[in-house]
Design goal:
Blueprint: E1 2-6, E2 12-17, H1 29-41, H2 104-120, E3 124-127, H3 137-146, E4 153-157, H4 162-168, E5 174-178, H5 184-188, E6 192-196, H6 197-205, H7 214-217, H8 227-232
Parallel strand pairs: 1-3, 3-6, 4-5, 4-6
Antiparallel strand pairs: 1-2
Helix pairs in contact: 1-2, 3-4
């Protein structure tokens, strides 16, 4: 699959070849959904709390006399029947665990498969060099307009690309993330993905490319072991 490459002015300057088989070959909706639900559930803090009658702020005066009015018997207006009252069965601040687990290989396959889905739908914009001389929101706004990005966008930049990161963070419908930490959750929550060519190459060839047994036996990024230390031990 050949994907066009653009410059910062929105002009096409080349193409980038991506192996579809390395991204799963075909779109697997079930796997992508499973990973999306897992990422979404793991964002929950599980610390929801609501107030009961005792904790709601307000007057404790009895609304009207107990008998003779023909109305139901009520005390103060903090009952759960009234607007602004407390909850009948309030939630307490107890930590609930909503976390779901997904094997590393499945996560990585889902992330790469989500990228394939974005490529098939022509929703990925690859930039030859995404750099700015200074942080300026107007520059990123003009850049997105030149790319014809009219919906929500995920801008994936390198960790040291501070100017682009600071320029894009004030725009509505634009989210900035680390290019080495692309997930299907972030990609599917936005219409477009904007990423530099070298950052995409690094992601495709980095730890996310290990979707087999070597992801556990010989993971990328592992610190080299010191042979002298092992012998001494």
């Amino acid at each position: 699959m050949n994907v066009p490459v653009y410059n910062m002015q929105g002009a096409e300057v080349g193409s980038f070849a991506i192996d579809e088989q390395a991204l799963g070959g075909r779109i697997n909706p079930a796997l992508i959904k499973q990973a999306y639900v897992c990422y979404h559930a793991n964002l929950r803090q599980g610390s929801a709390k609501t107030k009961n009658r005792r904790e709601v702020e307000g007057s404790t005066r009895k609304l009207y006399r107990q008998k003779g009015t023909g109305n139901a018997r009520h005390g103060d207006k903090k009952a759960n029947l009234f607007r602004g009252g407390g909850h009948g069965h309030s939630k307490k601040r107890t930590r609930e665990d909503y976390r779901l687990d997904l094997p590393k290989k499945m996560r990585r396959k889902a992330n790469r498969n989500a990228l394939l889905a974005k490529l098939v739908d022509n929703e990925v914009r690859i930039i030859d060099t995404m750099m700015l001389p200074e942080p300026k929101t107007r520059a990123i706004s003009d850049f997105l307009a030149a790319l014809k990005v009219d919906r929500s966008a995920l801008v994936a930049v390198a960790a040291d690309n501070d100017n682009v990161r600071r320029s894009a963070r004030n725009l509505d419908d634009v989210t900035v993330c680390n290019a080495s930490q692309l997930t299907c959750f972030d990609m599917l929550n936005h219409r477009y993905l904007i990423i530099a060519r070298e950052d995409l190459e690094a992601w495709l060839k980095g730890p996310s490319s290990q979707t087999g047994k070597d992801a556990k036996t010989n993971p990328m990024g592992r610190a080299p072991q010191n042979s002298t230390t092992e012998e001494a031990a």
